[in-house]
């Protein structure tokens, strides 16, 4: 068994934890392949996105930094090329690092340390999706609940086409590694776009739920929503097009069907690893970039500090290296960077990603006594809010803070649905102060807010200027050298 295992890092887009059976007994999605990985692997019970929106969350997982440091403020902000990533660390340790699927990198650097990408990305690579805070809470058609009206069956769509290419290229990469007899360890990031809305699926997967009575959301809408929730209601158009029960059920059924489709893809990857003899020496990691409220509290999609939006599923699997079980400690996507680096034998990297922002939890996976990881921090600067919100989870408690709005404190052990705000309860004053000091002590909030606001205004101007005279993009163009494919490949056997 190699000291440097292969790493297969599989990621869903907008998959919330509460719909999976390894997180909730009443979950309705059907995921036999993920269930098998969870049964034989480690389930991280309290894993969190560092920002419940795509670009900042993914920048955090690759860099080990929080959004306030890598400054990918939203889905239109550049991920700067000078920031070291897990791909840099692992390449320096001898790995080949490859991506198949979505990264949502914004800016000229579309690799960020990876050797190559097997597909292009799903979304724009420019500053297109920039919304300055000066606009106030604004409704956007592209992120509106109006799209729930098209939830249900489809013949095909862009997401299905994209994920099919991601799967094909991923399997092709694994097979090529065996054909070419590589001894070099690899890090393959397979990143699908399902089950991101629009919630649509084909009959094969929709039909798997013919006998399932799709449940409506359990948690009712707040009678007095928090200001950040009110901002998101405007952004998502909740009051303009409130979904009826039939629409909610169709949306949830399609979401579950998309998850089942994704689950089949995961099963194919695992089966191929076994078939090719790569399984025993490959650590498989599965997670998502953020969650989805899926109608809970009357909320949809992401961008919120509530559990449905912030919590992500996370499974680690390699029975020969990692003893199966469940870990209750809090971790975040940013912790993946140093954990992957340590797993791959990379040199000390804490000075390059910032040990105060993330930390390896490999010791936690290995059940070592020296592991002290039990914290997750989230920051949100993206569309749908008009100033930052910040949150921290330590142990059983989660604290959320926004300027000029009430703070929130929840005991998630006793109140997993976050129904009882304890922020004004004298009995919890000490834990609130502890978490508040730990969270806000990291920042000069006023300076950070000014910096984020100015950058959004600048980006909006740049996008408008660059969009003239033919426009611009930094979209990744996958290159395949036909002269090195198949029988024309250099030193490549025809069969193994």
UniProtKB/TrEMBL annotation:
Transmembrane segments: none annotated. One of its GO terms (cellular component) is cytoplasm. InterPro entries: Alkaline_phosphatase_core_sf (IPR017850), Choline-sulfatase (IPR017785), Sulfatase_N (IPR000917). Gene3D superfamilies: Alkaline Phosphatase, subunit A (3.40.720.10). Keywords: Hydrolase, Metal-binding. It comes from the Bacteria. Residues 5-345 form the Sulfatase N-terminal domain. The keyword Mitochondrion does not apply. GO terms for molecular function: metal ion binding; sulfuric ester hydrolase activity. Pfam families: Sulfatase. The keyword Metal-binding applies. This is Choline-sulfatase.
């Amino acid at each position: 068994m190699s000291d440097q295992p292969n790493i297969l890092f599989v990621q869903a887009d907008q998959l919330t934890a509460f719909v999976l059976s390894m997180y909730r007994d009443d979950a309705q999605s059907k995921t036999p392949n993920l269930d098998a990985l969870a049964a034989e692997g480690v389930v991280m019970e309290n894993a969190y996105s560092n920002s419940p929106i795509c670009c900042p969350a993914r920048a955090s997982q690759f860099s080990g930094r929080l959004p306030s440091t890598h400054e990918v403020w939203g889905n239109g902000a550049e991920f700067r090329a000078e920031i070291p990533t897990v791909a840099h660390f692992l390449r320096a340790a001898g790995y080949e690092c490859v991506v198949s699927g979505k990264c949502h990198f914004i800016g000229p650097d579309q690799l960020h340390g990876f050797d190559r990408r097997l597909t292009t990305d799903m979304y724009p690579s420019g500053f297109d999706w920039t919304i300055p805070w000066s606009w106030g809470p604004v409704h956007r058609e592209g992120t509106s609940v109006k799209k729930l009206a098209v939830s249900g069956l489809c013949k095909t769509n862009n997401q299905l086409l994209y994920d099919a290419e991601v799967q094909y290229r991923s399997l092709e990469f694994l097979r090529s590694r065996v054909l070419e007899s590589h001894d070099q360890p690899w890090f393959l990031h397979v990143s699908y776009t399902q089950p991101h809305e629009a919630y649509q699926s084909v009959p094969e997967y929709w039909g798997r739920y013919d006998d399932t009575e799709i449940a409506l959301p359990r948690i009712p809408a707040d009678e007095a929503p928090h200001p950040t929730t009110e901002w998101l209601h405007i952004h998502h158009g909740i009051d303009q097009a409130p979904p009826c029960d039939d629409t909610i059920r169709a949306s949830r059924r399609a979401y579950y069907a998309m998850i089942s489709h994704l689950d089949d893809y995961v099963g194919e990857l695992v089966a191929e690893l076994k078939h090719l003899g790569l399984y025993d020496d490959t650590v498989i990691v599965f997670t998502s970039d953020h969650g989805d409220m899926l109608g809970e509290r009357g909320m949809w999609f992401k961008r919120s500090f509530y559990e449905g939006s912030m919590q992500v599923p996370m499974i680690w699997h390699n029975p020969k290296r990692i003893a199966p079980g469940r870990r209750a400690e809090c971790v975040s996507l940013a912790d993946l960077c140093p954990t992957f680096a340590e797993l791959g034998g990379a040199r000390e990297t804490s000075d390059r990603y910032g040990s105060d922002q993330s930390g390896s939890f490999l010791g936690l996976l290995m059940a070592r006594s020296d592991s002290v990881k039990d914290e997750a921090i989230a920051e949100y600067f993206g569309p749908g809010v008009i100033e930052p919100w910040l949150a921290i989870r330590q142990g059983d408690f989660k604290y959320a803070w926004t300027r000029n709005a009430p703070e929130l404190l929840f005991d998630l052990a006793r109140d997993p649905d976050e129904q009882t705000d304890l922020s004004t309860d004298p009995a919890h004053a000490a834990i609130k102060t502890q978490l508040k000091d730990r969270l806000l002590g990291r920042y000069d909030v006023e300076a950070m807010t000014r910096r984020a606001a100015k950058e959004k205004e600048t980006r909006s101007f740049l996008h408008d200027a660059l969009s003239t005279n033919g426009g611009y993009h930094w979209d990744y163009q996958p290159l395949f050298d036909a002269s090195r494919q198949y029988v024309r490949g250099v030193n490549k056997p025809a069969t193994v």
